[in-house]
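Let us work through a complete example step by step.
Step 1: write down the sequence.
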Amino acid sequence: MLQNSYVCLMAEYNHWMNLKLYGACSQLSNEQLSEDRGAFFGSIIGTLNHLAVADTIWLKRLSTDLSHHRELKALSRLPMPQTLNAILYPKFEELAEYRQHLDKLFLSLSKVVTDSELQQIITYKNTKGTEFKKVLFSLLVHIFNHQTHHRGQTTTLLSQAGVDIGVTDLLALIPNE
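Step 2: predict the structure and record it as tokens.
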């Protein structure tokens, strides 16, 4: 259960950090969140939307091979985003609600996926249509790392806007033994 334990820890960290991030973002106005700050996806809201887009794409890809997990059935109703810079939710409150939905899916999946499933090969196509075959565990590591990467950018943008998010280290969630 070592790999499953890692996936659970990363899903919990992802959720914890997104709660902190969205809490910090709520201190800014919609205008401040939408201001182009020269980041990869322009604004804070653009970066947060990119993360929601990427997670939606990945969860929909995974749901094909993991369709027996009821946690992923709700994804069939969601449309597949067409671009990585799509703005799914221009209003922060709606995006925050959707982020909670995505995080709950990751948390639920992390609790039921087995080590055996984590070793299975997932076949998917990227947004350009190129097919790939990768191990599920490696894909989940990528997904959580991608979140961390763009949350880091967002915390920098928040800091520049005068908002301190506080502790962001995974170490804060690792229990003392």
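Step 3: interpret the result. The helical segments are 2-25, 30-34, 44-65, 92-112, 115-118, 136-160.
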